[in-house]
Amino acid sequence: MSNEARDWAEVAAETAREAAVAVRSLDLSGKVALVTGGNRGIGLAAAAGLAAAGASVALWGRDHTRNTSAADLLEDLAAAPIFADRVDVADPTAVRSGFERLVAELGRVDCVFANAGIAEHAASFLDITDDSRDRVLQTNLLGAWSTVGAAVSHMVDRHERGDPGGSIVVNGSLATARGLSGGEHYAAAKAGLGALVRGVAAGYGRYGVRANMVCPGYIERDGMPGRFASKLAERGPVPRYGRPAEIAGIVVYLASEAAAYHNGDTITVDGGWSINVK
Ligand code: NDP
Fold it and tell me: Among 79, 126, 176, 248, which residue has the least CB neighbours within 10 Å?
């Protein structure tokens, strides 16, 4: 065998071995994940996906009863512990103490899905009240800001103790890059999340911390078809609403070591809605 062929064989064997390890690392056994807004919808689906992939999962929401019921559901899927906690992400102090309780309970945090969010719409920009603007920005932007801040601080500390690694995923929206008349507060919050995540990705990759944004398209809320059903049926390449479970896979992938080189990205999961020029 020539040197060139031997080199090829070595490189090919190494590539194949590493690819197999990377894909097996979609198994999240031993990792701890936090999902904010994990008691219903996309957050619950992501929490269930992370638990099914082997992670220990903490879920946050404001409704204690729903948190507890969601945790019971996850326990049926999970081999690792599940921890539900009542945390309002709009309150930075609550986020800090919630994060401390989480580390005390589950020992560490490897992945965070900052998903908690609210949607409010007005007839136009000028109809958005100051209260609505503040609620939406406080929850969707500053809530994720506090959550990501607590996570990055924890992950950098771990890195300095010789235990690097961490994945941050924020839940964006198609509104990050489009005009949403009457939803400027929502769109501004989601666009701000994009800026936040890219800054964190650029600044903390060297600490083993990756940060990415997922932008779901139109996803059913609480299993109910919504008001865009006919629009989606008419011009959606996949002509229907997405389901919360259809966001779970990308969150599991981004949480895993299979995504070790995936950083600073915005990933759209919308059935092709955004690319359709029809
Ligand atoms: P749901 O209304 O079904 O779920 C929202 C979740 O966020 C609930 O678990 C809720 O729990 C929690 N939440 C809301 N406010 C707070 C808060 N202040 N503190 C902690 N938890 C909070 O929404 P979806 O699943 O549809 O949406 C989830 C995320 O996905 C949002 O960020 C949304 O913007 C985004 N998204 C949704 C799309 C869709 O089509 N559905 C499309 C694109 C993005 P609780 O009420 O108990 O606090």
Answer: 126
**Domains along the chain with CATH numbers:** 29-269 (3.40.50.720)
Q: What are the tens digits of pLDDT across the range 185-213?
A: 999 999 999 999 999 999 999 999 999 99
Distance CA 187, CA 178 (A): 8
d(CA 25, CA 46): 17
Across the strands, what pairs with 242? 219
User: What are the residues facing 83 on neighbouring strands?
Assistant: 58
Model pLDDT for residues 49-69, shown as the tens digit of each residue:
999 999 999 999 999 999 999
Write out residues with Cβ below 6 Å of ligand 1. Answer: 36-37, 39-43, 60-63, 66, 88-90, 115-119, 139, 143, 171, 173, 216, 218-219, 221-222
Give residue 146's identity as a one-letter amino acid code.
S
Distance 21 CA to ligand 1 centre (A): 34
> Tokens in use for 129?
């009240």
Best probe residue, ligand 1, of 44, 67, 118, 180 (max atoms within 8 Å of C-beta): 118
Taken as a whole, the chain contains a residue count of 278
**If 0-12 CB within 10 Å is exposed, 13-18 middle and 19+ buried, where does residue 162 land?**
exposed
pTM exceeding the 0.85 threshold for the entire prediction: yes
Residues forming a β-bridge with 167? 111, 210
